[in-house]
Amino acid sequence: MTQLLEKAFQEASKLSELEQNALARWLIDEILSEKKWMNTFAESEAVLEKLADEALSEHKQGRTKPLDIDSQ
To answer: For residue 48, is it within any domain?
Structure first.
C-alpha cells in the first residue's frame, strides 16, 4: 500500500462508522466502475478504430462539414 493511501485510510478511520461505511461503499463502487470501463473500452478498441478510420476517410473525401455549435 502506498504512503498516500495509508494516510487516507488513517484519516478515514477518524470518521464515524456511518461515514466510514459510506466512504468504503463509494470507493468500492469507483474501483468496480473503473474496472468495468477499462474492460469495456479494451473490448471495443477494434470497433472504435474502425469508426475512426471511417470518419477520417469520409473527411478526406469531403463528406464532412465543420460543426457549428451556434446553429444548434
So the answer is: yes
Q: Would you say how long the chain is, in residues?
A: 72
* Cα 43 versus chain centre, distance: 14
Question: Quick one: pLDDT at residue 20?
Answer: 98
Q: Domain tally for the chain?
A: 1
Instruction: Say if 34 falls within a structural domain.
Output: yes
Q: Are 19 and 11 in contact (CB under 8 A)?
A: no
Domain extent at residue 47: 17-60
Q: Tell me the pLDDT tens digit for each residue of 9-57.
A: 999 999 999 999 999 999 999 999 999 999 988 888 888 899 999 999 9
Contacts of 64 (CB under 8 A, 6+ apart): 55, 58
Rounded to whole angstroms, the Cα distance separating 20 from 12 reads 6
